[in-house]
Amino acid sequence: MAQSGAVKGEAAVGGASEEGASAKETSSEEVPAEEAASGEAASGEVPGGKASDKAEEAASSPATSGEGTAPPAPPRRTRRRRILRWSAGVLAVVILGTAGAGYLYYQHLNANIRSDDLNLGDAKDRAATTQVNSAGQRALNILLIGSDARDTEENQKLGGAKDTFGGPPLADVQMLLHVSADRSNMSVVSMPRDTLLGIPKCTDPDTRKTYEASTRAMTNESLGRGGPGCTVATWEKLTDIHIDHFMMIDFSGVVSMADAVGGVPVCVDANVYSHTSTGKGSGLKLPKGTHSVKGQQALQWLRTRYGFEDGSDLGRAKAQHMYMNSMVRELRSSAKLTSPNKLRRLAEAATSAITVDDGLDSITKMYDLANELQKVPTDRITMTTMPNRYVGARVEPTQDADKLFRLVREDIALDGKDEKKATPSPSPAVAPVASPDGQIAVQVHNGTRTDELGSSRGRATTVAGVLTAKGFTQAVADPSAATSEATTLVQYPSADLEGNALRVAKVLGIPASAVQKSTDVSGVTLVVGADWRSGTTYKAPKAVPEDNTAPDTAQAINASDTSQCMHVDPSFSW
After folding, report:
1. Which residues form the Cell envelope-related transcriptional attenuator domain (predicted)?
2. Same domain, yes or no, for 560 and 526?
3. Residue 484: pLDDT above 70?
4. Domain check: are 301 and 360 in the same one?
5. Are residues 64 and 152 in the same domain?
6. By three-state DSSP, how is residue 7 classified?
């Protein structure tokens, strides 16, 4: 029980960012991505549960699981604008500690939980449901979200500017928690809040207002477009990873839960004071060395950007990951949460602070999920940050990010310790459907340019002609879209066009592995790469073993690493 709680507690505590809207500039305090990561790790434990009625779950044994029916009364649905990531692990511990409190107490805790729609995007932008492996096991993906909204007096006191009161919330903490199908490992991927990407069309479930798609916006804006379900939709569109659940928590919730959990050891390699002459910063002030932080000081740690590393969200994410890892170790190695009173306080704090999707809208569902997550050993928990590059003061995903997302999609551990796993069983009757060849619109781009050679002239036109001759009468060359690709690719923007893209690849002899979903294209797009600089027949390169190691740019940190210590920017040392 203490183990389960440990993981959850950690996740719950991480979740607010310190300031600003960009990686290097900020205008207000915000929840750190790493805090969110902490929450993710913990919340990851929650995702394993199964749906059931709130009332039924309350009355039944916590270990019971199964398909639930509609609850006697619809769950309280509140699109909370002030939210931070919450750890499922903490809730599991709470449940274990209060299991004997009785039916009425379960109902009371259930009534605290707020829920919202899981995905507000169009069906075409959604990722396919994760397949089970040959052992019948399915991986779990939970998105942990933290908002910088300060729409309560308490949250204002904890770091809000008055001019932010009542404004659209920003999802300044976003962490994807992936739990492997066999529960042998857990991977967390943080996305910087100022990542530039496409946000899909979303519809607010309460007002029915529709927010049109944006081709290039900061990811944290997604929360203000109808709620957390739009942030989920944004992640699915970018990563093609099916998300099973989300969890959110606010500033005050993080503080109350951090107090309930108790101190968590953190380390700085020099004296640090996160404060600027203009009043920015989290206010964190610590001397060099290891310290136990809780409550508001824990929140300061999770929100600190000014003072850590290069002052960007990337440094803050690392601090959040360190906190989460330390919390996991602390809770699993001690009996911190064995006191019934502490557990009850934590249960109250957690259930009052979080907003979840409908699949996690009861204590029993969270308990079931937590039981799944506690199976993951501490030394198999890996925290990472989405590989990115700067675009001005913002960032955007790199090819390494695509690789990281693929590893998660394919349920490959990011710590490199995977043994041979059961391969996913074929998905019955779900092969993407293609339109008739003559109805498939294809844009052909010339991507043959390399560092040593210029573009092979006329390649887009030549290959478009090959497609036309094969019956793809809507294939056209786009000479203005010259790119550089080492290998030929067929890209498509949404799931409804995947079948068409696969059909184009098959006709040209291009391997299915070269068919990719991409937010950079608006329709089926054939990019003729440097491996097809001449001729009308594509010669597929010899297959080489795929690299299934996490990219170095993901800055992976293992939860068992006790040597972690944040580097302090000398200009913020005292």
Report:
1. 171-332
2. no
3. yes
4. yes
5. yes
6. helix
**Rounded CA separation 513/484 (Å):** 18
* 159 confidence band (pLDDT: 50, 70, 90): low
Count CB neighbours of 365 within 10 A: 30
Give me the phi and psi of 388, to 5 degrees please: -150, 170
Same domain, 558 and 527: no
Tell whether 33 and 148 lie within a shared domain: yes
Q: What are phi and psi of 528, to 5 degrees?
A: -75, 115
Instruction: Name the 3-class secondary structure at 424.
Output: strand
Q: What are phi and psi of 368, to 5 degrees?
A: -60, -45
DSSP state of 479: T
> What digits encode the pLDDT tens for the residues 56-90?
343 333 333 333 334 444 444 444 333 333 333 44
Q: Which residue has the higher pLDDT, 147 or 96?
A: 147
Query: In angstroms, what is the C-alpha Rg of the chain?
Result: 24
Nearest alpha-carbon partner for 25 in 271, 277, 310, 297: 310
Its domain, for residue 459, covers 437-532
- Structural contact between residues 573 and 271, judged by C-beta atoms closer than 8 angstroms: yes
Query: How many other CB atoms are there within 10 angstroms of residue 24's CB atom?
Result: 17
Q: Find all residues with CB under 8 Å of 423, minimum gap 6, and list them.
A: 133, 134
Q: Which of 338, 295, 361 is nearest to 75 (CA)?
A: 361
The Cα–Cα gap between 484 and 428 comes to 37
pLDDT digits (tens, 9 = 90+) for 403-441: 999 999 999 999 999 875 544 444 444 678 999 999 999
pTM of the model: 0.69
- pLDDT at residue 151, as a whole number: 64
pLDDT at position 143 is 96
Q: How many domains does the chain have?
A: 2
My answer on whether 469 and 339 are in the same domain is no
Predicted pLDDT at 152: 60
- Dmax over CA atoms of the chain, in Å, equals 76
Give the CA distances from residue 422 to residues 108, 131, 137, 188, in Å, rounded to whole numbers and listed in that order: 42, 12, 9, 22
**Cα–Cα distance, 241 to 65 (Å, whole number):** 25
Helix spans in 305-376 (H): 313-333, 340-353, 363-373
Question: What are the tokens at 230?
Answer: 């739009």
Q: Residue 515 forms beta bridges with which residues? A: 490
Domain for residue 199, yes or no? Answer: no
Task: Tell me the average pLDDT of the chain.
Answer: 80
pLDDT exceeds cutoff 90 at 507: yes
Is residue 532 predicted with pLDDT exceeding 90?
A: yes
DSSP letter, residue 77: B
Residue written as token pair 């916590």:
62
- Do 419 and 439 meet the contact criterion of CB atoms below 8 Å apart? no
- Identify whether 521 is part of a domain: yes
3-class SS of residue 492: strand
CATH assignment at residue 487: 3.30.70.2390
Q: Residue 136 burial (CB < 10 Å; 0-12/13-18/19+)?
A: exposed
Domain identity same for 523 and 563: no
Whole-number percent of the chain with pLDDT over 70: 75
- Judge whether 16 lies within some domain: yes
182 and 324 belong to one structural domain: yes
Instruction: Provide the 10 A C-beta neighbour count for residue 451.
Output: 6
Rounded CA-CA distance 316/150 in Å is 20
